[in-house]
Amino acid sequence: MARSGVYRTALDLVATAQAQGHDWKALIGLRSSALGERSEAPGVEERDVVSHGRHVIDELGDWFARSDAVQEADTVITLISQSDIAYGRRLRMAGKNWVAWTRGMPWPDKGEQSASRTLAARMIESWALRRADEVWATTPILAKEVARARAPFIVPAGVPSSVRVHDGTVLPERLIWAARVDRDKNPQLFLDIARGTGIHSDMYGTGPLEQAMRRQAPQNVSVAGWVDARSLWTRPSIFIGTSLREAFGRSAVEAAMTGTPLILSDQYGAAPLLYTDPDLRKAFVLPLDDEEAWIRSTRSLIEDDELRIRVSQHVYDNAQTQSIEASLAAAQARLLQFGS
């Protein structure tokens, strides 16, 4: 994996569990080119994945089979499709509980890959999910997709709690977008919103469409590439989440944890968790086919101080229920009921 939201979640879960006295460990495979620093945290083993294509599954399976951490574990939790398939295909060890805790959409959407590759990915991941003892999903949106293979339990994701730095009283300096720069994250809509509002905007992330976004960006948009997520929320901003399909939306929850106002697509898994007020949800959880609605909502947060303060408080309060501590507690509670 890249050092993405799932990568950071794995580190957060292990660190939080160990701080509470639980013996959790993580095996994380990445490309040597993955941006960011290698973790040296206790209980975390990172290694470079060198294979490509279907051979990645074999490499992961060999690693898992030799791993002392896997051999000694009572329960194995896989977080991404490649791990689901590798564990289900090679190991499926007797006497060990196995949970496939799905964090992202488990297979490509229509148009993201060829029809044959999409069908193959869906078939093999569905096979793996059916072999697991339990399947968990982090949000109702993700659970609906996963249920095409197997009905999951909903066990929420979470992010580390952070100090609130924004309360909506200061006029936002910019719009901010942070995600993998690829088709499913819909970066073009962010450029259109920035162009329509004329507000300075920053796009963060790497991916296949990064260079195309650089070429197409209007003058008020900076396509800044990858940065450490902890640096994103220091300035007064409005977070814009334009994804076509988003299982959870870690960046949105991290922004809300700091009190940063948000505008999210109605395909964002975290949207109904962060916007629980019906009026605010109608105003700031928007359909993807109405660019003018996004521009109006953005301007309303710039121009209406009272509304911006209300939104900041609302999303901040709701984000507290999406902490990594709450996620770990939900996982531990589900593990105590394993198989029920």
SSE order: HEEHHEHEHEHEEHEHEEHEHHEHHH
Uncertain runs with pLDDT below 50, 5 residues or more?
Answer: none
Q: Give me the number of helical elements.
A: 14
| Largest β sheet strand count, sense and barrel closure | 6 strands, parallel
Distance between the termini: 32 Å
Q: Tell me the helix content.
A: 40-55%
The order of strands across the largest sheet is: 9-8-7-10-11-12
CATH topology of the largest domain, by name, is Rossmann fold
Molecular shape: globular
DSSP strand (E) fraction?
Answer: 15-25%
Assign the structural class, choosing from mainly alpha, mainly beta, alpha/beta, alpha+beta, or little secondary structure.
Answer: alpha/beta
Could you name the CATH class of the largest domain?
Answer: Alpha Beta
Q: CATH homologous superfamily of the largest domain, by name?
A: Glycogen Phosphorylase B
Whole-angstrom Rg = 20 Å
CATH architecture of the largest domain: 3-Layer(aba) Sandwich
- The tally of beta strands, per DSSP, is 12
> Can you tell me the number of structural domains?
2
Mean of the pLDDT scores? 92
Written account of the structure:
With 340 residues, the protein is of the alpha/beta class. It starts with a helix and ends with a helix. Helix 8 (210-216) links the parallel strand 8 and strand 9 (221-225). Helix 1 (5-19) crosses helix 14, helix 2 (55-66) packs across helix 4 and helix 9 crosses helix 13. The strands form three sheets. A six-stranded parallel sheet has the order 9-8-7-10-11-12, sandwiched between helices. Strands 3-4-5-6 form a four-stranded parallel sheet. It has two domains: 5-158 and 324-336, Rossmann fold (3-Layer(aba) Sandwich); 174-322, Glycogen Phosphorylase B (Rossmann fold), CATH 3.40.50. It is globular and about 60 Å long. The longest helix is centred in the middle third of the chain and has 17 residues, at 115-131. 42% of the residues lie in helices and 15% in strands.
